[in-house]
Amino acid sequence: MLRDGAIATWSEVVNSLGDVHENARLVISQSFHSFPYCVWSPTFAGNYGRSRSTYLCIGEGKIGFIRAEGKTIHHISIPISEIDEFETGTELLSSWITIYFHGQRASVFFNSVSKPLYARFIDAFLAERVTDSDFNPIQEDNETYLKALKKEDFKYETYVRRVLGKRRPLASFYHPTASAPRSIFGARIISSYLLIAAGGLLYSFSEGRIIRYVRSVNYSMVIRYIPIATTLMLRHTDMKDTYSIQSFSRFEWPLLEVPVSTTKSGEFSTFCRESKIAWSDQRGVTP
């Protein structure tokens, strides 16, 4: 598995069916009436996972993952309207896209140099799932919010500005870095993270591992896009000495877990209420 900055790890846009590996041509031609936007990622591995040579395609309202290596072609095709969560992540030269659907997940890992090639997949997902109810053409509210966020934790301001654009935050919850109970391997912390509800989506900005050891160095940023709708539920899954684990799920499928310090539990509950995210107990019954 390649995992460095060599050109051999860079992704490429594929412009025609003739440029596709012979093993994958039939799958693509059967899945799309016309040749889709297609990005080929060579075999790649990073700290958060690995994937074999993959064609990631988008067109006709769906995304296709085609693993092109070996005698057997592994293929997944998912309508954008059925994606439960869209995730992008980057840590130095390692990046990835993961989609969650019907209790399953599919990922492609690639060299971060190639990130611009994958922007179209994010744009297509947002175009399909974002509502215009929170659109703010004047953008003054956003600027006020972003200035306050920059003072609180400057590292998120650029990401939020790029992701939200002119969409007005309906609600937001910022969890600062906090101490977590020590484990047998050393002192731990809850890294800061940010949740925003806007345009019918729950946006999450965090490091790849929110609970980590104090001395571990982390340069990752993971952005998650989760449609709220009426089927997104919040479940309390575990209670620790100083924090609880809260899980955002759709039906029985977990999508995102976040630790919430006891001192921030009230603000977290207010955020979920303002975001219209329902609470459910372990049996899936809404009180």
What would your notes on this structure say?
There is one protein chain. This protein is an alpha+beta fold and 287 residues long. Helix content is 18%, strand content 42%. The protein has helices spanning 22-31, 119-129, 140-152, 157-164, 265-274; strands spanning 12-14, 37-41, 44-46, 49-51, 54-59, 62-67, 74-79, 85-91, 94-101, 104-111, 171-175, 178-183, 186-190, 193-198, 201-206, 211-213, 220-227, 232-239, 243-250, 253-261, 278-279. The protein is globular. The N and C termini lie far apart (49 Å).
Q: What are the main properties of this structure?
A:
287 residues; alpha+beta; seven-stranded antiparallel beta sheet; five-stranded antiparallel beta sheet; globular
